[in-house]
Fold this sequence. Notes:
The protein has helices at about 10-20, 20-30, 85-95, 105-115, 125-130, 130-135, 140-145, 155-160, 165-170, 175-180, 255-265, 275-285, 300-305, 320-335, 355-370; strands at about 35, 40, 55-60, 70, 185, 195-205, 205-215, 240-245, 270, 290, 310-315, 340. It is an alpha/beta fold.
Amino acid sequence: MISHSVSQSDLISLSNFIIDRFEQLIEYFDLDFYKERKRYTGKCPIHDGDRGNAFAMYTEGQDIVGNWFCYTRGCHKHFINTPIGFIRGLLSRHKFDWNITNRKFGFYDTIKWCTDFFDKQLENSEVDIDKFRFIKQSSIFEKKETQKNTIDRKYILKSLDIPSKYFLEKRGLSKNILTKYDIGDCLSKNKPMSNRTVVPIYNNIYMGCTGRSMLKECSKCGFFHENNCPKKEHEYFFSKWRHNKNFNSENCLYNYVNTLHFIKKTGVVVLFESSINVLKFEDYGMHLSLCTFGAKFSDLQRDLLDKSGAMTIVTISDNDAAGEQMRKTVKEKCDKLYKVVDLYVPDNKNDINDCVEKELINLKKRIEQEFYELGK
Length: 376
Ligand SMILES: [Zn+2]
Ligand SMILES: [Zn+2]
């Protein structure tokens, strides 16, 4: 039986397997295709079109092997444009007479169909079933564990005023979520995180923390300070967000361990720039969001997503130039293997923490109705 937790590496190896045996599919579905140098071309069998060159499936080349396109109706946009998405499209057409509005053949049912048809076992799906086993196997976390952190959760609980009054009062987060995530204000003087609301980052073990300044933004220099504006070389200490010294945000995705279960279940992951966005979504019952700690998106963060079981990546980045950069980077790094969708907060808001309840609920509904894989 195929569990609802197929790993990205299984999907890649299954896709490659299918491409090597593409002729079998052509024969089985009686497809009207002809072979060109690097691709098969023909009528699109998914919308059952007439145009003889509307469809292309690339079977050779460096980057786009296994990608397919329907140039007339864009059928590839309704399924992921991998070989598995193609088969899902074919099965949807054959079983449910799919034409955009009709029901799709289930994603996991498609995987099952593929493993039966090609008589191919999945290799790694076992690994992903138990998230804790997976965390232990991940080299990224192993590296961190050997660094011997002297700080642990007990120390965090002792040093912070939890739940953070600043996030409670100024950012509208609930006491419940702040307590659950150990979010507190650093009220002691002369600490690296003094005057900041601290967000500890755990991946089973404590990884580090990031802090949001509780001071006002200076209209002259744009930094967050009391007294005089900082010198150039000290500006970092007064930035809006600051990580603790040994924390490398590129190795991590905030909320990863907590969300794995939900990502596997729905096939969807939401990417935000900031941990406070994640907390806001958690407050509204959406347990599948992660943050990248800023507008960057590293290769290591992409590797983590590859192991998560996500099929669709929804970005909800800020309504500014940095947010645009993040949407671009995620697209560049993930477009080939995932369906990447950008959602936006209303034009007059910068991020989801500025949104009112109605806007948040609309976003939530859209994600659930349009992107959840299960039950579709
Ligand atoms: Zn088509
Ligand atoms: Zn200033």
